[in-house]
């Protein structure tokens, strides 16, 4: 069985002080929780403090929201995989729709990051998802397939098992509109079918596929009960310790 993975994507929120106080409250809330993997992806500035406070905790892993695929050099404003590894970061979010839309990231650029992450022992959380126009035109499956094939080009079966896919329909991000559990399950099953085509069914069966887009304590259990939904990538609702802890608890095996 795939262990659920619940990740907080704090986006451009949380000062160091706010992150510290979140972690203090959150750890109390999840003291009894087992059987679920928890990831927090704060802004870069809060990573050193959280890394120090977590001290290599197995219970809460650190993620980054971005990085650049080159090893070092003249890339003003960028952060490398080795810099993240210095802070014991395990996961990195790649290809979030905000990076695709606002910062113009393409599938081939995203693919370079996925390959560089694996080469540096960072586990990618590769985000895919269609816009409202694409869904209304009935193209969502085609869009997912293009993003997956492009983003995962050259990724081996062993690496795919260490990759998390996040299905985030763009129309559900920050809008309060969640995909219904049936819509999400349908998309996740399609993602898994594409992964099976890229490798084989046994490999695809091991890959964890998160849902993201207005996940809240009130809808987490229903979403996480679907057969192909193996976790959540949570934005807004991950900024509050108790609410995020409730979502984490929805991922604990029954
Ligand atoms: O983009 C998301 C997580 O990466 C989802 O954001 P919201 O949970 O705020 O809709």
Automatic annotation (TrEMBL):
Record-linked Pfam families: TIM (PF00121)
Reaction catalyzed: D-glyceraldehyde 3-phosphate = dihydroxyacetone phosphate
Function: Involved in the gluconeogenesis. Catalyzes stereospecifically the conversion of dihydroxyacetone phosphate (DHAP) to D-glyceraldehyde-3-phosphate (G3P).
EC number: 5.3.1.1
Keyword terms of this UniProt record: Cytoplasm, Gluconeogenesis, Glycolysis, Isomerase
Primary gene name: tpiA
Family of the protein in this entry: Belongs to the triosephosphate isomerase family.
GO cellular component, one term: cytosol
Keyword Protein transport attributed: no
Compartments, as annotated in UniProt: Cytoplasm
Organism: Terrimicrobium sacchariphilum
Entry's Gene Ontology molecular function annotations: triose-phosphate isomerase activity
Pathway connected to this protein: Carbohydrate biosynthesis; gluconeogenesis; Carbohydrate degradation; glycolysis; D-glyceraldehyde 3-phosphate from glycerone phosphate: step 1/1
Subunit note: Homodimer.
Classification via CDD domains: TIM (cd00311)
Catalytic residues (positions): 96, 168
Protein name as it appears in the record: Triosephosphate isomerase
Keyword Membrane on entry: no
Highest taxon of the lineage: Bacteria
Chain positions recorded as substrate binding sites: 9-11, 174, 214, 235-236
InterPro entries: Aldolase_TIM, TIM_sf, TrioseP_Isoase_bac/euk, Triosephosphate_isomerase, Triosephosphate_isomerase_AS
A biological process term (GO) from this entry: glycerol catabolic process
Annotated Gene3D superfamilies: Aldolase class I
Transmembrane segments: none
């Amino acid at each position: 069985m795939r262990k659920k993975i619940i990740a907080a994507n704090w986006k451009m929120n949380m000062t160091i002080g706010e992150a510290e106080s979140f972690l203090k409250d959150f750890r109390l809330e999840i003291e009894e929780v087992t059987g679920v993997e928890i990831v927090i992806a704060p802004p870069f500035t809060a990573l050193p403090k959280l890394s120090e406070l977590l001290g290599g905790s197995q219970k809460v892993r650190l993620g980054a929201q971005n990085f650049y695929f080159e090893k070092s050099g003249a890339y003003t404003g960028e952060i490398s995989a080795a810099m993240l590894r210095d802070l014991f970061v395990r996961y990195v979010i790649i290809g979030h729709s905000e990076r695709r839309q606002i910062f113009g990231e393409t599938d081939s650029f995203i693919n370079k990051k996925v390959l560089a992450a694996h080469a540096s022992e960072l586990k990618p959380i590769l985000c895919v998802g269609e816009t409202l126009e694409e869904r209304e035109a009935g193209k969502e499956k085609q869009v997912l397939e293009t993003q997956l094939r492009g983003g995962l080009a050259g990724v081996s079966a062993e690496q795919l098992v260490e990759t998390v896919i996040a299905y985030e329909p763009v129309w559900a991000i920050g809008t309060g509109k969640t995909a219904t559990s049936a819509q999400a399950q349908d998309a996740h099953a399609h993602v898994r079918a594409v992964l099976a085509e890229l490798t084989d069914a046994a490999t695809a069966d091991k890959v964890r596929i998160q849902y993201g887009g207005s996940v809240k304590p009130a809808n987490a259990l229903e979403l996480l009960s679907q057969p192909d939904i193996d976790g959540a990538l949570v934005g807004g609702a991950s900024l509050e310790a108790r609410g995020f802890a409730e979502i984490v608890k929805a991922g604990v095996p029954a």
